[in-house]
Amino acid sequence: MQRVDGRKPEQLRPVVITPDYNKYAEGSVLIEVGDTRVICTATVEDKVPPFLKGLGKGWVTAEYAMLPRATGVRTVRESAKGKLGGRTMEIQRLIGRALRSVMDLEALGERTITLDCDVIQADGGTRTASITGAFVAMILALNKLVEQGMLEKIPVSDLIAATSVGIINGVPVIDLCYAEDAAAAVDMNVVMTGTGRFVEIQGTGEEATFSRDEMNRLLDLAAAGIHEINQVQRQVLGDKLAAAIGQV
Amino acid sequence: MQRVDGRKPEQLRPVVITPDYNKYAEGSVLIEVGDTRVICTATVEDKVPPFLKGLGKGWVTAEYAMLPRATGVRTVRESAKGKLGGRTMEIQRLIGRALRSVMDLEALGERTITLDCDVIQADGGTRTASITGAFVAMILALNKLVEQGMLEKIPVSDLIAATSVGIINGVPVIDLCYAEDAAAAVDMNVVMTGTGRFVEIQGTGEEATFSRDEMNRLLDLAAAGIHEINQVQRQVLGDKLAAAIGQV
Amino acid sequence: MQRVDGRKPEQLRPVVITPDYNKYAEGSVLIEVGDTRVICTATVEDKVPPFLKGLGKGWVTAEYAMLPRATGVRTVRESAKGKLGGRTMEIQRLIGRALRSVMDLEALGERTITLDCDVIQADGGTRTASITGAFVAMILALNKLVEQGMLEKIPVSDLIAATSVGIINGVPVIDLCYAEDAAAAVDMNVVMTGTGRFVEIQGTGEEATFSRDEMNRLLDLAAAGIHEINQVQRQVLGDKLAAAIGQV
Amino acid sequence: MQRVDGRKPEQLRPVVITPDYNKYAEGSVLIEVGDTRVICTATVEDKVPPFLKGLGKGWVTAEYAMLPRATGVRTVRESAKGKLGGRTMEIQRLIGRALRSVMDLEALGERTITLDCDVIQADGGTRTASITGAFVAMILALNKLVEQGMLEKIPVSDLIAATSVGIINGVPVIDLCYAEDAAAAVDMNVVMTGTGRFVEIQGTGEEATFSRDEMNRLLDLAAAGIHEINQVQRQVLGDKLAAAIGQV
Amino acid sequence: MQRVDGRKPEQLRPVVITPDYNKYAEGSVLIEVGDTRVICTATVEDKVPPFLKGLGKGWVTAEYAMLPRATGVRTVRESAKGKLGGRTMEIQRLIGRALRSVMDLEALGERTITLDCDVIQADGGTRTASITGAFVAMILALNKLVEQGMLEKIPVSDLIAATSVGIINGVPVIDLCYAEDAAAAVDMNVVMTGTGRFVEIQGTGEEATFSRDEMNRLLDLAAAGIHEINQVQRQVLGDKLAAAIGQV
Amino acid sequence: MQRVDGRKPEQLRPVVITPDYNKYAEGSVLIEVGDTRVICTATVEDKVPPFLKGLGKGWVTAEYAMLPRATGVRTVRESAKGKLGGRTMEIQRLIGRALRSVMDLEALGERTITLDCDVIQADGGTRTASITGAFVAMILALNKLVEQGMLEKIPVSDLIAATSVGIINGVPVIDLCYAEDAAAAVDMNVVMTGTGRFVEIQGTGEEATFSRDEMNRLLDLAAAGIHEINQVQRQVLGDKLAAAIGQV
Fold first, then answer.
1. What per-residue confidence (pLDDT) applies to B248?
2. Is residue C118 part of a domain?
3. Is-contact E29 E84, C-beta < 8 A?
4. E87-110 per-position pLDDT tens digit
5. Which subunits sit against E, judged by 3+ Cβ pairs under 8 A?
6. Is A100 in Cβ contact with B86 (below 8 Å)?
7. How far is the C-alpha of C113 from the C-alpha of E167, rounded, in Å?
8. How far is Cα B226 from Cα B218, in angstroms, rounded to an integer?
9. Is F132 labelled a binding residue?
């Protein structure tokens, strides 16, 4: 089987993470996964949402958006429509949950970290690129807090990265570009830790179904790919910083 | 291990489906899963969304809501807030996708079936109860179209039902009630067909992660439970109607 | 004259009130008036709206909604539209005013009682059924406060119930079902107390007018019907509770 | 009993109607009822709402608003809040219904008349002043259609005017100013035709109730007052125009 | 060149300012500039926006709206649309900035003055008429504070007035009526003080451009016209009050 | 006088324009003016707004937004707030007007060009950078239409660029960065053509005023700076393309 861009089924697109892409944010990256490009910024604020007030715990949340021409056909802005769409809400809830899964919220203290993931160009896999990039932006912001003496160490227990897998013409493939995504019978987003545990699995058959065996093959592909992406994250963060994660 | 309501880990709560609960809808049920109660109505309209105009295909979509006192503490109405929350959007997208997975949209013709799932009382598992109930309401509505000669046969290839599974204190359990849901480290919603294929898997660790082995045990539990729920659906639909499904 | 459902002009449809329909609400009923079905829940909260802060008084308010298939043709959800319609606002203001007319707000103390009236099935008279049912739900909630020692007695001076009357083909009739409502030249909603005093009269000629004499005949019909409805309320509340009302 | 502004119980405030107050509208008046001042404009458009398309009938509708300093304390604009309040919706629905009651919608043809009632200064009775003024503005606009040969005659069967009545310290009074309105136990708005038939009666006890006898005394007061207001309307419209009404 | 209403290029329309047009507002005027009519009210409140809390400074802000039939064709209400348009926001921001330019916000103290400018009839120049009128309403309100001993003197350093200028068929003209505005290649709104300093210049070529020389001729026209308008303002305010301005 | 970043009063920050920054848009640039960075994309669609339907003319419009961390303190998304702020509306209207001033809308035909200006990082002058960049993106998109034979030539009569000028501590300066902007008494945005004609002048004194002489000095500064910016635009567009502009 030949993929549209010549990749092998198990081959990721190139992943490039540029740290400190924004001069104002406490942490930031530009992440590129093939032609998909997302700016991720991490903002640290000394406040928590109402439901956490006075509990001595922090919070991690995310917002996601696409520029109108991130896509082939111009998308109407959600600010102009006056409301967020279901897809946007679903994605930003996913990013937030994924990052919270490895965060020690007590150790973070009464702070909120907001990850803004703004898609500059979309060629499939924007939500998984957002998770992978937002994780790095978050660690950069936390490291700043450590350097400023606000935190003793980075209160994160493991790496987090994500990718998509799917079945196209019966073949399980990884990291679907937009053209593949549109053609896939089954589409699965997988978020995993650096030690290979699952954080989130969202497998869905749009007008199709899948067997347990197919699911297992997709998870094998995802696990291998996420392991590769972790290496890119480690490189950007540097040995010292990467080592600090998980040593809570 | 003792569950809060005395059930065994693999034991479902009683599932009761009352058909034709509403005198106006083309199909309707009241589904009760323990203390969770959802009214599901199926509306058939001779129109399709703009993106399907002129393609000769139909559409299946869903809306989900909770009455203010479906919950222990009164929830503010989304109509009063002026917008749908992220959770609501996520759930109604899930229900729609699940039902479309077994529907032959070409055979349905230029019609839209809207499944309204209104939670009267919520004790955990409202989204999976909605899927299970909405499937039956949809079949009842389709059967009416067959009886009226609008369709030759029910254009559905398999049964659809759903349940939740999760890990509580390290033990995988099925069909979590609200108190269990709040305590679960991992929460997974599984939608399957009558022939045991997956339609949707949404596994998520809120401030936690899970291993591949744990995932497998959860899927085993879900598969067995959904098989049981299918029996309730078949009973409500009756032999003849149940037999008609999948004979496309 | 023959009414569409065979009733006599002065004959109400059967009124059935099922108390404690919801396991979470402080008070709740399912009220059925013919095929009209409304779930009414009463929520008690220890707070008051801003305009009453610090005045030592309580408040009673109501919200009203219809499920999409409460009606013959599916109604778009107001949550999806992003705003409440004029009819909804008018009705929920009416229900609130009606219940406040017999409530001793000082004796209630700094509490708000919210009556949620959700129409499951609509066959005319949903607003008057809501008032009749909400009154019972409110008394059940207040009784719980008395039993818990939060209130000395039920701070309500009289029963409240409502019905509709109208003129069809020149004949005054009571408790119009949907088909009659659509055909009526004059439509009047009447809210009265158990001792026969008026709380609210809303008479309106849609593309028609009515004489003083016609109005008097409508009010006679309404008074007799409301007296009957009061008997159903008394039966549901039980002798002891019914007796407690008005003994402030 | 002494009323706050020295009037007798049955005495109206001076009613002044200035026709053609706006140079653009097809019909317009400034109506002053004491210190209450409302600009009413009638707009004629060659279109009807969707539910009337192709039925050969017209429509009459109304919108109502208050300038921020129409009131003693500045009111936040509904445009700034982003939604209409319940009171506004209730009032504009009332005005529309009242005017439609005497309009021959078939004779009007496929046209919509929109009455905009903007309260410049509010001292009680703004909704009834709006109805009284909007009726005159509507007739002026219809007369223009007659003069232009678009209509054969004014398709209105009777005069429409409105006033408020209420009970203050046990005394029934007419045309309550703001200070009286706030003190009234019972408040009733009455809309009547020039021949003394009712169009709308909205009587309401806010935290109070009223007897049938009290209601009768209020309606007597209202009927006499509306008869007086009709004279002002006739004077503004002139003999010829006033005569044309009701000769359909 | 002949202007549509017979004026000379440098000739203003008659400016009439009626003070105390509203009985509730702390300051109010009706300003008429030809057929353009705006009600301006000034509301004084003892509070400031959040960004000024605790700084001992006050604020001046403005809101602007048009009645639906202020215009030849009925405009849909922004309250009905649920949001303010860009033009409205632009104008109300302009009015607020213009008035703040001469206000000593420290001397005003922790108070907010809100200028509501409601256009009753629009025939061009509504934003500049609003500024001219709102200035007078504001001074009237401030004078009331002085009279009540809340302020020692009027904390305003100069008069403020505004007019429009534009180029029609190559000829610079002042105070464009609606028909001229629609035909103008260049449109400029100028706000100036009584001593001839600029507060705001907004010159714009809609589908056109203009030279520096043209701009200079427009500013000469505007300066002369605003000087005339200042005389009307002084007359309305009276010698004593006019003298008080600028004597901070 | 020493500016905060060491520039001379008449010195611009470096302007860098990267063309074809986005792979989907018909035209696109990344424009950097010092630390201010804006992505401008031009979308061509074969449709026009309702008010131009059937007139054989095209339209040019713009939308403007800032990423949440474009600024030092995180800004809440307008999509989350559910409405556009006044500043956003004002800016996007300005950008649209500026570009339309040199466009031959008849020659464009029934097409709409939408310029999306998304601020990635904001350090003052975002609206003027947006205009300068959007102009280049628009020419790139128009050139594509020419190359595809859809247009005979680029229907634009002149270059468009913009900058800000202001008065800080009494000294007129050009191209204010954020720190200067906050300190300026007068702030003026100037849009000019390549041949030195004005398109838009927006000069405003926030809590200050300015003399005619000061205005003249600001306009001199702006004219010189815009001339420099035009050179950068010409370089990006290349000799051939730059020459094509204005040869309509």
1. 47
2. yes
3. no
4. 999 999 999 999 999 999 999 999
5. D, F
6. no
7. 64
8. 12
9. no
pLDDT tens digits for B106-120? 999 999 999 999 999
E43 annotated ligand binder:
no
Q: pLDDT by residue (tens digit) across B185-222?
A: 899 999 999 999 999 999 998 778 999 999 999 999 99
For chain C, say whether D106 makes contact (Cβ under 8 Å): no
Give pLDDT, residue B247. Answer: 60
Q: Give the model's confidence band at B82: pLDDT under 50 very low, under 70 low, under 90 confident, else very high.
A: confident
Sequential DSSP letters for chain B: ---TTS--TTPPPPEEEEE--SSSSSEEEEEEETTEEEEEEEEEES---GGGTTTT--EEEEEEEE-GGGSSSPPPPHHHHTS--HHHHHHHHHHHHHHHTTB-HHHH-S-EEEEEEEEEE-SS-HHHHHHHHHHHHHHHHHHHHHHTTS-SS--B-S-EEEEEEEEETTEEEES--HHHHHH-SEEEEEEEETTS-EEEEEEEETT--B-HHHHHHHHHHHHHHHHHHHHHHHHHHHHHHHHHTT--
| Higher-pLDDT residue of B208, F126 | F126
Percentage of chain D modeled with pLDDT above 90: 88
* Residues annotated within a binding site of B: 87, 125-127
The dihedral region occupied by A245, where left means phi > 0, alpha psi between -120 and 50, and beta the remainder, is beta
Crossing angle of helices F126-147 and F86-100, in 10° steps, is: 40
Q: Which residue in the set B22, B63, B121 is minimally distant from C77, CB to CB?
A: B63
Could you tell me the residue range of the domain that residue E187 belongs to?
15-244
Mean pLDDT, all residues of chain E: 94
Please check whether residue B52 lies inside any domain of the structure: yes
Q: Which of D24, D43, D78 sits opposite E79 (nearest CB)?
A: D78
A202 part of contact set with chain B, CB < 8 Å: yes
How many structural domains does chain D have? 1
Helix or strand holding residue D82 (H, E): none
C77-88 confidence digits (pLDDT tens): 998 888 888 899
Whether F5 is in a domain gets the answer: no
Q: What is the pLDDT of residues A75-103, one digit of tens each?
A: 999 988 888 888 999 999 999 999 999 99
Chains touching chain C through at least 3 C-beta pairs below 8 angstroms are: B, D
The reply to whether B116 touches chain C by the CB within 8 Å rule is: yes
CB pairs < 8 Å spanning A and F: 84
For a pLDDT cut of 70, what percent of chain A falls above it? 99
Q: How far is CA F178 from CA A226, B191, E92, E123, in A?
A: 41, 53, 24, 39
Dihedral pair phi/psi, residue E43, rounded to 5°: -110, 130
Whole-model pTM: value is 0.90
Using the Cβ of D106 and the Cβ atoms of chain E, whether some distance falls under 8 Å is answered with no
| Chain D residue whose CA is closest to C211 | D197
Q: Is F194 annotated as a binding residue?
A: no
Give the pLDDT mean for E102-122: 97
Q: Mind giving me the DSSP string for C85-142?
A: -HHHHHHHHHHHHHHHTTB-HHHH-S-EEEEEEEEEE-SS-HHHHHHHHHHHHHHHHH
**Chain C neighbors of D184, CB-CB under 8 A:** none
C82 interfacial to chain B (CB closer than 8 Å): yes
Q: List CB contacts (< 8 A) between B103 and chain A.
A: 207
In a domain, B20, yes or no: yes
Subunits adjacent to chain D (3 or more Cβ pairs under 8 Å): C, E
Q: What one-character-per-residue DSSP string does A142-206 give?
A: HHHHHHTTS-SS--B-S-EEEEEEEEETTEEEES--HHHHHH-SEEEEEEEETTS-EEEEEEEET
Is C28 near chain B, with CB under 8 Å?
A: yes
- Taking the CA of residue A243 and the nearest CA in chain B, the distance in Å comes to 20
Q: What is the CATH number of the domain that holds F217?
A: 3.30.230.70
Looking at beta carbons, which residues of chain D come within 8 Å of E82?
Answer: 82-83
